């Protein structure tokens, strides 16, 4: 609902542009229709035909044997860690990865594993970095059992792993006997950027999770995919963490529509992000690394304005432009299906005006 705001003595209609995350997307009319008509059953008995169809479709799209529908990406990652990694073992992951940074320490609380973080470059590790993190077998060290990777990488700004590098890193982990889990919350954004099927990006990983409730705009859910026997073990762990649902076909139906109708349109979000990035990059005091704006995120460093990013975000919110500060210097702008090309231009205009006001 547009708000009316008094600005410079005139009345202007304030457009609300929500760029905090693609998680704010709302379901499409086709999703709501599919939800209303979904055939359902008790999924704990394996009797929900819609959930089964979603799990099978997700597995097929990612080139894996089986899938498991879960309430959230966080739970999917937690179940993956619980299922791959022995209690007391070490899990290697990038220092800014979502699993380490944003999942409330679930891997320590529930999976009882030891995180071993490695600082990457733009969210990517190199084979050398992983080799250096692998410690020899020794009574003093926890044995490493799992490597977790993230594509696209959230805190790096939606960056896409170069495929060769991804595969080389996975090979190093496999050679050392580690399993590899890919947090592919936005794997379809990566696939669209590379012009490759998501299954190609998922090929060498042992398990992959992706979110239906981000750019694909379904209201709830993520899917974890992998080998059939591994998914059976993950299903038990989903029950452990209370994530087994009953007539979940009602929400899974929207997930099916998301996979059928929302993947190719992600290119539009990427184009909007690129346009926004180019507009922000020319605002004095704001800096954007244009080379790394690859998908639906823009990271803007506002330290040149002499104001902390959370304070600048509050100023923007007062003008109807919602963004998240990801650290004291950087703001994250995320484009998605509920943000138009015009919204993006308006957001950039508001940033330029507020930036100018900071400088006076
Ligand atoms: N990311 C959210 C916040 O939690 C930061 C966002 O707004 O980007 N993996 C990755 C790479 C993610 O970005 C997210 C969500 C998750 C996992 C968790 O998914 P949910 O929110 O479904 O638990």
Walk me through this protein's architecture.
By secondary structure, the chain is of the alpha/beta class. It has two domains: 4-25 and 265-359, Alpha-Beta Complex (Aspartate Aminotransferase, domain 1), CATH 3.90.1150.10; 29-261, Type I PLP-dependent aspartate aminotransferase-like (Major domain) (Aspartate Aminotransferase, domain 2). The protein contains 14 helices and 14 strands. It has helices at 29-37, 49-62, 73-84, 98-101, 106-109, 127-133, 163-175, 187-194, 198-202, 228-240, 249-261, 266-281, 309-318, 341-359, and strands spanning 3-7, 10-14, 17-18, 66-70, 90-94, 114-118, 144-150, 179-183, 207-211, 222-226, 297-301, 321-322, 324-325, 330-334. It has a seven-stranded mixed sheet, with helices on both faces. Helix 12 packs parallel to helix 14 (341-359). The radius of gyration is 21 Å and the shape is globular. The relative contact order is 0.17. Bound molecules: ligand TLP.
What is shown here, in short?
The protein is α/β, with parallel strands linked by helices. It contains 14 helices and 14 strands.
How is the topology of this model organized?
Blueprint: E1 3-7, E2 10-14, E3 17-18, H1 29-37, H2 49-62, E4 66-70, H3 73-84, E5 90-94, H4 98-101, H5 106-109, E6 114-118, H6 127-133, E7 144-150, H7 163-175, E8 179-183, H8 187-194, H9 198-202, E9 207-211, E10 222-226, H10 228-240, H11 249-261, H12 266-281, E11 297-301, H13 309-318, E12 321-322, E13 324-325, E14 330-334, H14 341-359
Parallel strand pairs: 3-12, 5-6, 5-7, 7-8, 8-9
Antiparallel strand pairs: 1-2, 4-10, 9-10, 11-14, 13-14
The structure holds ligand TLP.
């Amino acid at each position: 609902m547009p708000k009316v705001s008094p600005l410079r003595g005139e009345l202007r209609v304030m457009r609300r542009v929500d760029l905090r995350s693609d998680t704010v997307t709302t379901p499409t009319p086709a999703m709501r229709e599919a939800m209303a008509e979904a055939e359902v059953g008790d999924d704990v008995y394996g009797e929900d035909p819609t959930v089964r169809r979603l799990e099978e479709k997700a597995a097929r799209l990612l080139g894996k044997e089986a899938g498991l529908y879960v309430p959230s990406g966080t739970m999917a990652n937690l179940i993956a860690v619980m299922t791959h990694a022995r209690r007391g073992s070490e899990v290697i992951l990038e220092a800014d990865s979502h699993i380490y940074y944003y999942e409330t320490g679930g891997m320590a609380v529930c999976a009882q594993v030891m995180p071993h973080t490695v600082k990457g470059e733009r969210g990517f590790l190199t084979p050398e970095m992983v080799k250096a993190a692998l410690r020899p077998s020794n009574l003093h060290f926890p044995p490493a059992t799992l490597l977790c990777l993230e594509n696209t990488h959230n805190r790096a700004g939606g960056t896409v792993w170069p495929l060769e590098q991804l595969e080389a890193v996975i090979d190093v982990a496999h050679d050392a006997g580690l399993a590899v889990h890919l947090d592919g919350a936005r794997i379809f954004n990566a696939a669209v950027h590379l012009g490759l099927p998501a299954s190609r990006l998922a090929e060498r990983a042992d398990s992959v999770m992706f979110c239906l409730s981000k750019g694909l705009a379904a209201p709830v859910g993520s899917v974890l995919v992998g080998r059939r026997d591994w998914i059976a073990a993950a299903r038990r762990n989903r029950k452990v963490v209370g994530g087994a649902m009953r007539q979940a076909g009602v929400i899974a139906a929207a997930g099916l529509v998301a996979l059928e109708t929302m993947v190719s349109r992600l290119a539009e979000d990427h184009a909007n992000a690129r346009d926004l990035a180019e507009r922000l990059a020319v605002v004095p005091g704001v800096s954007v690394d244009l080379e790394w704006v690859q998908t639906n995120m823009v990271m803007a460093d506002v330290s040149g304005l002499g104001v902390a990013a959370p304070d600048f975000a509050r100023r923007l919110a007062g003008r109807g432009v919602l963004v998240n500060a990801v650290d004291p210097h950087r703001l994250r702008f995320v484009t998605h299906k509920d943000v138009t090309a015009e919204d993006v231009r308006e957001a950039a205009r508001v940033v330029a005006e507020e930036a100018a006001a900071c400088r006076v």
